[in-house]
Design a protein that fits this description.
CATH architecture of the largest domain: 3-Layer(aba) Sandwich
Number of helices: 17
Strand content: 15-25%
Number of domains: 3
CATH topology of the largest domain: Rossmann fold
Number of strands: 14
CATH superfamily of the largest domain: P-loop containing nucleotide triphosphate hydrolases
Mean pLDDT: 87
Strand order of the largest sheet: 2-3-1-4-5-6
Shape: globular
Radius of gyration: 23 Å
């Protein structure tokens, strides 16, 4: 189904495949997807980087399999492979631990413990079960820890149907009930006005992902939707017979849109909507208030989920740093990172500013929030940072009573 291949990664159930080198992870992935997406070889360590395969897995819908390099790799190159593999833990919704011929030792237990510590549902796949069967005592221990066990011979396709059923059984409940983006803020039959600037960052001939996803979310909720550019907003609002339930803007146009939207109409940004859907809005509120404590010379990390090529007036590299420096009244040492890489040591930063992560699943964003909280480093979001530095933070939080209450309480 062609449209399934275009489903954004953030809406897919992320299934990480872990295990020793040559345990049969790639063969298992190929058997599940019915095509050769991973290189299969008798030579240990053939998979060098995580291999991603999007597919449709009914009745779950769109999923993303991530076939990892063997985490028991050795040598300088092996260390890099292991580091890449460990990053996959951060974005895994469901883990497959592939065990070769019932060989379950400290290494396998370590992966199981890592997944368990993160509360990630787990399926233990005893591959090459034609060579050896797992001991009854081991199966009993795994079942006590709520791990689902399946026996396969991936190279021959045996046990794959059992594994498919196990995947459906183990899928996290929250994946089946994806939080709304904006539909819960706009009752059925009411209207949202979306303000979409057409600037250098807008891809030619189409809208950007957060805008498209928000439109679809509103339509799924039986709400109306009007899309305008920022220059036409005032005229569009005047033409409506009754006010919209919500105005959503690109964060970069926040100031103009706030001026043109009546105070009685709730206003927020796409970035803040995704901060709520993908993460913890209250933690982002706390992090945004740390902007008040920034001083010239402080280090700030700007984190982008996607790896787009930056333009001349890029929001993460140019605009947000400029607004922050203006607010602080001096220079800041700002570092930018992209994709799944994230600094191991966050202690040097006084603030992390993260994009809306529209292409990510919620687990990876929550993992980053947890790492920031553990390091004692505040984390904000593009839209919330912009609203705070422009002095319209409370206005941008009005659609979210709990977050607004958090802000007012901390402000006292």
């Amino acid at each position: 189904m062609p449209h399934m291949q275009t489903t954004p990664k953030g809406f897919r159930l992320h299934i990480g495949i872990f295990g020793r080198r040559n345990a049969g992870k790639s063969s298992l992935l190929n058997a599940l997807t019915r095509q050769e997406v991973s290189i299969v070889s008798e030579v240990a360590g053939t998979t060098t980087d995580p291999v991603e395969k999007p597919m449709e897995l009914l009745p779950l819908g769109p999923v993303l399999f991530i076939d990892t390099a063997g985490i028991d790799d050795s040598g300088a190159l092996g260390e890099k492979r292991v580091q890449k593999t460990r990053q996959v833990f951060d974005r895994t919704d469901l883990g497959l631990l592939v065990v070769e011929a019932a060989r379950f030792e400290d290494f396998e237990q370590g992966i199981l413990d890592e997944l368990r510590e993160r509360n990630i549902p787990l399926i233990v796949v005893f591959n090459k079960s034609d060579l050896a069967k797992p001991q009854a005592a081991l199966l009993e221990d795994l079942q006590k820890s709520k791990a689902i066990c399946v026996e396969t011979v991936a190279s021959e396709g045996r046990g794959i149907l059992d594994l498919r059923e196990a995947l459906i059984q183990a899928a996290p409940e929250d994946f089946l009930h994806t939080p709304a983006i904006a539909a819960d803020l706009v009752p059925p039959g009411e209207m949202a006005v979306l303000v979409v600037p057409i600037d250098k960052e807008a891809p030619k001939g189409r809208l950007i992902v957060p805008q498209v996803q928000t439109i679809r979310d509103l339509l799924d909720g039986d709400s109306y939707c009007m899309v305008v550019k920022e220059r036409e907003l005032r005229d569009a609002l005047e033409r409506l017979k009754r006010p919209p339930a919500l105005v959503v803007t690109d964060s970069q146009a926040f100031l103009k849109v706030a001026a043109d939207t009546p105070p009685s109409v709730k206003l927020t940004s796409f970035s803040i909507l995704f901060a709520r859907q993908k993460g913890d809005l209250s933690q982002f509120v706390e992090g945004s208030m740390a902007i008040e404590r920034l001083k010239p010379g402080d280090r700030v990390l700007v984190a982008e989920a996607c790896t787009h090529h930056p333009i001349a007036d890029d929001i993460g590299r140019v605009k947000i740093p400029r607004w922050l420096r203006q607010y602080v009244g001096g220079d800041l040492r700002i570092t930018t990172n992209q994709g799944h890489d994230f600094p191991e040591d966050l202690a040097e930063y006084k603030l992390v500013v993260h994009c809306g992560s529209c292409l990510w699943n919620r687990r990876e964003m929550l993992t980053r929030l947890a790492r920031c909280r553990r390091a004692g480093v505040p984390i904000s979001n593009y839209g919330m940072t912009i609203a705070y530095t422009l002095g319209i933070f409370d206005r941008a939080l009005e659609p979210f009573p709990d977050a607004l209450e958090t802000y007012r309480r901390l402000k006292k």
